[in-house]
Design brief:
mainly alpha, 7 helices, 55% helix
Amino acid sequence: MNATAPTPDLGSALAALLVELVDGPPGHEAYMLNPGDPGLLRSLAPIPWTTAAAPAKDGGAPIAAHVDHILYGLSLMNRWAAGEPNPFATADWAASWKRNVTSEAEWERLRGELSDEAHRWIEAVKSLGDAPPLDPVALKGVIASVAHLGYHLGAVRQIDARTRGPRQEERQGSS
């Protein structure tokens, strides 16, 4: 196996994992979430803006800050995928945690922007099979984008139980 070039299906495999995290697993093919899980976007939909804006019970970042942070990271990845040489050089990650949602309309807009950036990134990752091999740093960044999204989905689900997907035993019908 050539360690410097990704397999031709790497882009489609990583895109499938991103789809699972963003939109839920398609059908019964699930690798990161349980089948029937709604994914991040549909999990956020029933959360009112007041809940999204409230700090976590332990004093941690509110859901809206996690959403803005994910959105910011995906926007940087999309800028890079569109040809910008290094959008990370001037990235202000601290600013991405300071989102202050003040209305339902703003919360809807934030979720809409997240959906747009996430789906743009999924399409960019799908096209990796048609692109020249990535250098090691870029390849790690692409793979890390999947893990990073999964991490923040888990963090959001720890803040508000309404965002959690089905448990494995619920899906199987056992207790």
